[in-house]
Structure formats: C-alpha cells, structure tokens
Input
Amino acid sequence: MKTFMTTALLSLFPFFATQAQRFDNTPIKLNSIELLLGKWYEIARLDNRFERGQDNVTAFYTQDGDGKIMVSNVGWKDGKMKCATGHIKRTDMSGLLRVSFFRPFYSDYRVLMLGTDYSYALIGGSSDDHLWLLSRTPTLTQAARNALLREAASRGYTVSQLLWIDQSNNIDKLAKKS
Output
C-alpha cells in the first residue's frame, strides 16, 4: 500500500509542475479603447512566424466613424516593406480584444500593461508564445524597459527569448523631421 501511494503521488508530480509554470495573461482594465489608437513602435517581441526577420516594425491603430478599429502593421525584411492590415473586435473584457488578419479567424490581443502616461504597452496573446513590447517612440527609457520586463517576467513569460527590434530607420526618419 505504501508503494502504491508513493507511486500515485509521484505520478502527479508532472501535473503539479506544469501547473506551477502557468503564465498569467489576464488583461488589465482598459478605460478606453481610444488609448490604443495611433502609432506604436515594436520594441521587442517573442519570435513568431508572421513577423520573422522583420525590423523597423510599427503598428498604426485607427477607428472609423462606425467605431470599427483597424490595425496596419508595417515592417521591413530584406529591404522590402511588409504590410498587414487587421480588424479588431471588442469583447466583454475591456483589455481583451480580438484581432484578425485572416478573416474569419481571430486571435487574442491582450493588453497586459500600459505605462501611466500611455507611452508604452505590454501586449500578449492567448498563449505564452505571443508577447510584444510597444512604445509611442522608437526607443524606450531604461525605466520603461525595466518595468515592461519585470511585468512580463512576473506573468511567467520567458523574457530571455525576446527579440529586440531594430528601429534605427525610424529613429533616423524622426531625426530628419526635427
């Protein structure tokens, strides 16, 4: 009987080990969807097939007169511009949106953190494979970067696997404007 109990308890170890490693992708309460509108620079991301190899990535969120929200993602790969336009749906949870680049298929877009001045954001998906660090400018202050990394790590994301996105072309463009 003692051997049976030991075996039964040991067989549950993988279950409890995976439960302890779960991540938290609970979205924050978003007071207004309008806070997300405008241009965002992708500072870092977990690798994904649809953006693989792209740098100088930006996302531009707009809302039409009917309240529909669109996103246009632009990045550069091998000297060529890549553009994807998506549709965003609201859900009953204010920080949880649904985005589709290939209708009718939608994916989670979870606002996990917003800077107090709305200058940076942490965005996740339905799994721990999707994470983006976004900023209103092509660079982040060290304090903002640290805050985003702390939040992502505390939620169980593997921040050591983040790809830091080259934004040098966007920085150069802004410098030429001023």
In short: The CA atoms of residues 56 and 167 lie 4 Å apart. The first strand starts at residue 38 and ends at 46. The mean pLDDT is 88. Strands lie at 38-46, 55-63, 69-77, 80-90, 96-102, 105-114, 120-124, 131-135, 162-164.
